[in-house]
Amino acid sequence: MTSGISVENPPIQSKPYFQDRRQQRLDHFFREAYARAFDQPKLSDIENREPDTDDILNQTITKSELAQAMGMRENDMFVQRMFSVTCRSDSDVITFAEFLEVLKKFSDSNIRDKYKLLFAMCDVHGNGRVRRSEFAEFVRSLNAVVGVNITENSQNHVIESILSRSGVSPATEYLSAADFEAIFSQVDERRPVGVDFRGAKIKVNLQETASLSSFAVSAIQEHHCTPRNIFGTIAAFVETYRQHIAIMFIFCCINAIVFLERFWHYRYETEHRDLRRVMGVGIAITRGAAGALSFCMAVVLLTVCRNVITVVRETPLGEFIPFDSAITFHKIVALFAAFWASLHTIGHCVNFYNVATQSQEGLNCLFQEAVFGSNFLPSISYWFYGTITGLTGILLVAVMSIIYVFALPCFMKRAYHAFRLTHLLNVAFYALTVLHGLPKLLDSPKFWYYAIGPVIIFVIDRIMGMRQEYKKLRILNAELLPSDIIYLQFKRPSSFSFRSGQWVRISSPAFSCAFNECHAFSLASAPQSPTLELYIKAVGPWTWKMRSEIIRAQANGSPYPLVHMNGPYGDGNQEWTNYEVAILVGGGIGVTPYASTLTDLVLETTSGRHHNVKCKKVYFLWVCPTHKNYEWFVDVLKDVEELDRNELLETHIFVTQFFHKFDLRTTMLYICEKHFRGDHQGVSMFTGLRAHNHFGRPNFDAFFSYIQNVHHDTPDIGVFSCGPSALNDQISSACARANRARDAPSFMHRFETF
């Protein structure tokens, strides 16, 4: 063996009865190899190294195991050529040292070793020259890794452009090592922003990112973004969340004022009745809690008026009220209501006990509206079960408990239909609240003073909802896409008007309760389109039922199920038109609203007519495991790029799946992606897009620093994201850190979580 390592153990694959153990050893094999090749000690888990590490380093792997580790088939050309170059003997296995040697050539800074290795991989016959067709075939073989369909003619055009740019004549049939050197002479050795070795994040010098990606940060970055001190940091936080802070401050102040007013009244002003002597401070606390609870119950109605919110957010009020956080505020108000209700309930339990110990004369003084028989002395059970106030109080506690329990995230996720049904009990809850105060045991009812306005607005909202309800919409086209994604297209109702970034609620009487079970989905079609399109991820019972109905209809040739639609409803993503510079970030299926937004952007700005789009530059970042499962969105991006004649849009695609498995594909794809383009603005041979492909997760700190440097004269930059909560949290944190810089643009983050 040229590697100098004696191989005594048989291939790992020859021990089938240790399948789990074999996989662990394979993972350890590749982890250790990548740790050494890329100088990332964290990858090798040195502190937790297994006792048999040295034994693993002496193991061998077969071609099938190499293919499995790379996520490819054993007969794929790339696997065969990679194995052939790595194996230095006639054996059908490769050693750790052989694998490490090849890996180091990809990770090392010596570009000459890289192109020699690539030349050897393309030199099928080993005669020191590579046919032009063999080179093209080798490059095309990498496309199977990405999984996006791109025509062979398009790929050949890109490859020929690269060869021509490198000085290779069209008449040249064979490529030499010198030709390879010309092709790869400009390969950038530094890793792209965002590459992540399974948690071992690579630190990137912001002043050296010019060739890493388009996120170039010049030396004047520090001048524009001087860090703030602690007071500046606090000021930046307040500036970022000023709307939320103001609303919460006002809400808390009103709660405190209402509570204290009622508390003061019953503690110090009600002297003509004997309440204070009998109940003490308890009556003041319970009445104060009742007032604050009434206020919360009124406010909580406003937070669910979706149709009214959609209209009001277009008015100047949208500048002062964070309507995007309506549901979050709804939950906060509900928690306040639960606190006041608990305080009110516990306080009255004590009060009723004190009342039950009073004499007949004392009761007549306390409850002037109540009439008792001359020989009747009510007990505590009477106050609970014999009065309207007591009975309605018990029912209110029961109803409130049911509503709150089924509103917990664990119940909503597993039993969404039950959550919707139990929330309908709110009608009974408000009716019982009105009945609760009718007997006037302590005072005339005040609840309706708080509730009358919100109830009227709520009724108006429901009327608007009925006007925006579209029943029996027929599905024109439906497709089942990879990753359990369902595509639905139906005719757009003539009266249906919407903005890009908005969403609708869908139900289907064919397999669910159309009255109660509605599900929210972002519109993927542009406002200019005559049809409406939805891309639905099958993740719950309703969506899986929809998928089954589509399969059944396609198999039997029967009509697709009818759907009911409500909406559209406003969302923070629709505000992208208000910013000169906008950043859109989509994660996974969260790209759906941006299919509408990006199409709307290019159609409006290239139409030649007046429009309200302020955007001068839009950055779109798509974070996805792989292109393969989202070919439909790649097609959308292709159409958008063709229409984007003003070059307003800059797209970056971050493929996260590859790097997590320590596979060789990442290095190969990165090298090819950086240089297999017809020109600086050429298309990717993997996707057919002008979009920049990155392999790893985005480094939002570096990206936002780049944006602040390029657009330092822009006061506010809109950041819009849609995806998992982890992605939105990461972006929010990065925005907060970027906003700490003085004399730099501020990032205003709007997001939607799915």
Automatic annotation (TrEMBL):
Residues 468-575 form the FAD-binding FR-type domain. It catalyses: NADH + O2 + H(+) = H2O2 + NAD(+); NADPH + O2 + H(+) = H2O2 + NADP(+). It is found in: Membrane. Coiled coil: none annotated. Its main location: membrane. It is an enzyme of class 1 (oxidoreductase). GO terms for molecular function: calcium ion binding; NAD(P)H oxidase H2O2-forming activity; peroxidase activity; superoxide-generating NAD(P)H oxidase activity. Pfam families: FAD_binding_8 (PF08022), Ferric_reduct (PF01794), NAD_binding_6 (PF08030). One of its GO terms (cellular component) is NADPH oxidase complex. One of its GO terms (biological process) is superoxide anion generation. Residues 110-145 form the EF-hand domain. InterPro entries: EF-hand-dom_pair, EF_hand_dom, FAD-bd_8, FAD-bd_FR_type, Fe3_Rdtase_TM_dom, Fe_red_NAD-bd_6, FNR_nucleotide-bd, RBOH/FRE. Its EC number is 1.6.3.1. It is a multi-pass membrane protein. Keywords: Calcium, FAD, Flavoprotein, Glycoprotein, Hydrogen peroxide, Membrane, NADP, Oxidoreductase, Peroxidase, Repeat, Transmembrane, Transmembrane helix. The chain crosses the membrane at residues 245-264, 285-309, 382-406, 418-435, 447-464. PANTHER family: NAD(P)H OXIDASE (H2O2-FORMING) (PTHR11972:SF175), NADPH OXIDASE (PTHR11972). In the N-terminal section; belongs to the peroxidase family. This is NAD(P)H oxidase (H2O2-forming). It comes from Ancylostoma caninum.
